[in-house]
Every structure is written in C-alpha cells, then in structure tokens.
Amino acid sequence: MAKVTAALRIEGLKKAFGGLPAINGVSLDIAPGERRLIIGPNGAGKTTLFNLVTGDLAADAGRILLFDQNVSRFATHRRVHRGLARTYQIITLFPRDTLEHNLVLSLLGLSPLRWNWWSRLSSIQHFREEARRVLARVGLESLAQRPMSEVAYGEKRRVEIAMALAQKPRLLLLDEPLAGLSREERVAVKELVASIPRDVTVVMIEHDMDTALDLADRITVLHYGSVIVEGTRAEVVADPKTREVYLGH
Question: Which of 106-115, 186-195, 205-214 has the lowest mean pLDDT?
C-alpha cells in the first residue's frame, strides 16, 4: 500500500458569495499527524474554508483531497466515512438530552445499525458503554446522566470534541474550540486537544492569535480569503505581514 503523502491537500480552492471572494485560491498541504493552526481576523474565511472541506459548501473551483483521494465532489457523509470529523463554532448539541445520549446519537450516526431498529435496540448497551468510555477520555464520565443544558459552556465544548472523537476520525477539524471559554476552561480544552494521539491529524482555526499557538506544528495565516503567511510559530510571529493583519502596522 502506497504511503499517504497528505492528510489534507487543498489546491487552488475558491468560493465567492454574491461576487465577493470568501476563499480566493487557497492551497494547503497538511501532513498525516500534523497539528495545523489556521488563524486570521474575523472575515478572513476560516469557517468558510472548513465548510468547503466538509462539503457543507460546494467550491467554485479547486480540489480537496483527503488522504490522497479527491473528495471534491463527495457529499459530506462520504467525507465523514473517509475519516473526517469536525466541531462547529456554534455548539450543535441537544440541550435536553444527557451527555451520554448525545454521544450515543453521534455513534449511531456512523453505524449501519441506524437503519435497523431491532438491531439498534439490542445493541444500545454497546453504544452506551462506548459513550461512557469517550466521556471518560475527556474527563466528563461523572456527568454522563446530566442534561446538556445543565453543564458549563466549557464542558459543552469538551462534549462536542468527544462526539467528534467518538467517530474515530483520521482528520479532525476544530472550529474555534477555545472561543468564549474562561481561563480554567481554556486550559482543560487545550489539554484535551494536546492529548489527541498523533494518528489523528488536527486542524484548528482560531481568531485570537495567542490562544492556541502552542498547540501547532505549523501555522497558516488567512486574510480576506487568501493565505498570506505560513510556517512555524517563530516564522509566523516574526513575519511583518502577521503584525500588519493583527496590529495594523
């Protein structure tokens, strides 16, 4: 079997809304196991880029390859079955359900048993056990029976990451997982992200440049839909184009 050369390769990706370019010829090459941070001010196109990678939006031009397979025309569920998972900037959980039930639903979503009610009912205990295991992995097993509406915002963020990890992804996209968190919550979520094994490639987008720099192997700066800087933390911080975007000089 040939060795995979990139977990995610984006070639000349473009997307415009009403004639205004949101993503303007973006190309990225992200190695298997890499931790890539994509930063940029509001309106840079970060979430639009993720929506194109997941298939939530169709690109106007360019190619997207997951583990060397062109998935540009794949529906979202086919990309998920290729090993892609993501979280969202706005939390998308079921507030009246328990943490455990949210995880069970996530696990069922990828299982062929979701089409077979009798098998699903007989196998529900397996999914509950797996949900507990994943919650334990993110330090929330003790809250398994708590309704989602009754846990702190930072815990909801950890549940959302847990739901993505429950899908056993090869490529995990995290959309501003640290946004809106307290200092203590931020520490907990950063520790969780840092604990993800290296057989999972992690791409994270953030608005605040300083928030997640220490989590990344390489950093990409996006501005007005284009890549303006890319490199190591030291290279990106030292580049005058980064200072111009964030500091205005």
Answer: 106-115
- The per-residue pLDDT for 114 is 46
Helices (H) and strands (E) in the chain, counts: 8, 10
3-state secondary structure at position 196: coil
Alpha-carbon distance of 156 to 141, in angstroms, equals: 13
The answer to whether residues 107 and 113 touch, using CB atoms and an 8 Å cutoff, is no
pTM: 0.88
Q: What gap in Å lies between CA 154 and CA 189, rounded to an integer?
A: 8
- Give CA–CA dist 34/20, Å, rounded: 32
Q: In the block, which residue shows the tokens 């987008």?
A: 205
Q: Would you tell me how many other CB atoms lie within 10 Å of the CB of residue 205? A: 25
C-alpha 141/C-alpha 130 separation (Å) is: 11
51-72 residue pLDDT tens: 999 999 999 999 999 999 999 9
Q: What is the distance in angstroms between the CA of the first residue and the CA of the last residue of the chain? A: 49
Cα pseudo-dihedral 67, 68, 72, 78, rounded to 10? -40
Q: What is the rounded distance in angstroms from the CA atom of residue 35 to the CA atom of residue 4?
A: 16
Element (H or E) spanning 26, and its range?
Answer: strand 20-30
State the pLDDT confidence band at 203, using cuts at 50, 70 and 90: very high
Written as one letter, the residue type at 194 is A
Q: Indicate whether 121 pLDDT > 90.
A: no
* Cα pseudo-dihedral 155, 207, 83, 24, rounded to 10: 160
